[in-house]
Amino acid sequence: MSTMSTEKLNLAENCVYVGVDVTFKGEISAPDAVVVAGTIEGDVTGRAVRIAANGAIKGSLVATDADVRGILSEKVEIKQFLYLHSTGRIEGNISCGDIQVERGAVIVATAFTVGNAALAGKPTKTANAEVHPTEKVAHVVQLKLQAAEGVSVPKA
After folding, report:
1. How far apart are CA 117 and CA 79, in angstroms?
2. Which of 26-30, 106-110, 144-148 is modeled with the greatest confidence?
3. How far is CA 124 from CA 90, 95, 96, 131, 148, in A?
4. DSSP label at residue 97
């Protein structure tokens, strides 16, 4: 029987990894990283969340930073930075401090709030946004946000 050394186990301390073809149903809370290559059906809380291209979170996500290549749906609260790759898709209520979206990514939001004021509980304006992979992401998001009263968006 083989045993793992304490040194090797320390590499994964405070982290959660959901592997390919694994489905986890329930709530996950990790003080550091959550890496999802499979599927989580439930609420996730972590400092840094990474969703692989074949990964999905179906539930509420609260994190400091998120890197999304797969699917994220329902309620999303990212306190600092949300990076949505070209293979990524986010659906539902989205609130984030800052966001970067690659061309090809999909955002289907019932409420979309960007800026630290939204996360501090201060009143802010939100906009409905739907972005499809065939459209120019920055241009479409800009037009949708400008349509919401009081939301200004810098020119691309």
Report:
1. 10
2. 26-30
3. 21, 11, 12, 21, 11
4. E
The residues pairing with 112 across neighbouring beta strands, listed in sequence order, are: 94, 127
Q: Strands of the chain (E only): list them.
A: 16-18, 23-25, 28-29, 33-36, 39-41, 44-51, 56-68, 71-84, 89-101, 106-114, 127-131
pLDDT digits (tens, 9 = 90+) for 40-73: 999 999 999 999 999 999 999 999 999 999 999 9
Which pLDDT tens digit goes with each residue over 13-29?
889 999 999 999 999 99
CA 136 to chain centre: 20
Residue 9 phi, psi (nearest 5):
-65, -30
Query: The tokens 């939100």 sit on which residue?
Result: 126
**Rounded-to-integer distance, Cα 50 and Cα 155, Å:** 30
3-class state of residue 8 by DSSP: helix
- Give the span between the Cα atoms of 132 and 39, in whole angstroms: 23
